[in-house]
Design a protein that fits this description.
single chain; about 110 residues; alpha+beta; Immunoglobulin-like; 1 helix
Length: about 110
């Protein structure tokens, strides 16, 4: 009878430890970079007379694909640039979303034009 209780307790403890043991993350996995390093969009908010927004990142010579969306999600403008200047003279006052892609990494920023 003692052997049966010992076996049941041993089995229960083993099952509980195995159940929690495999759910841990492996800290040695290198996850891909999720953000563009050093990304900056300025001036923001943009004043009435400004027609240029500057987009900079740590990689100064990287090709950037920039898409501009309105708040409803409709793409207004799309461009590919290696320079840091982005012409916004065709945009009206309002709030826009910039989707900036550098290599395989994308990041979004809000842009306000007064």
């Amino acid at each position: 009878m003692k052997h049966i209780y010992f076996f049941l307790i041993f089995t229960a403890v083993f099952c509980l430890s195995v159940q929690n043991g495999f759910a841990q993350d492996n800290p040695s996995i290198n996850y891909p970079k999720q953000n563009i390093e050093g990304l900056s969009v300025f001036p923001n908010p943009v004043g009435n007379n400004a027609s240029t927004v500057y987009i900079t990142s740590s990689n100064k010579f990287a090709i950037k694909k920039v898409a501009i969306y309105n708040v409803l999600g409709k793409q207004i403008k799309s461009t590919i640039t290696t320079r840091k200047e982005l012409d916004i003279s065709s945009l009206n006052s309002g709030v826009y979303i910039l989707k900036i892609t550098e290599g395989t990494v994308s990041e979004t920023r809000k842009l306000v034009i007064k």
